[in-house]
Amino acid sequence: MDPIERIRSHFTASAELKLAAAGPMAPLVARAAETMTSALLADGRILACGNGGSAADAQHFSAELVGRFERERPGLPAIALTTDTSLLTAVANDYAFDQVFAKQVRALGRRGDVLLGFSTSGNSANVVEAIAAAHEHEMRVVALTGRGGGRIGELLREDDVHLCVPHQRTARIQEVHLLVLHCLCDAIDQALLGDEA
Q1: Does domain 3-193 sit in CATH 3.40.50.10490?
Q2: Is residue 180 within 8 Å of 59, Cβ to Cβ?
């Protein structure tokens, strides 16, 4: 295939998936934003985790909340559990890599906080363990997955929110995750600050 046509096909596939996912996912994204806003208004915080590109998504989300999204406002309490290399390597070395987020959730999470977990496969063992730890602390979970949701989809409780992208390809799933991340930030700001003038 011609390189330019191949690139265009990526754009088309991404746009088509986003349009197809908008209908079923929009109400769930709104519910996730409400869950997060309620936690923030009750002096809670959001702990975010994921691996690889999903680790970058966790960090991106935390940056948008602590800094700002598109409007000026006080920083909101969000922590990316993916950034402390000393902690991550110590837990991975002394315990197991599947505990790198769960140990942090147990140390930092409180009842009423929200865990935001990213896993394109829905099977990331360390995100699965983080969800179990969040449930132990009576935290709600917002999970962004793909490929049917995997083990994470099976673990979620009724008051958790599962944002599962209906696709098999990692790149397409991550592209929708990024859009969802921005929708969450916008909805939180809208709930806290009102509509833009």
Answers
A1: yes
A2: no
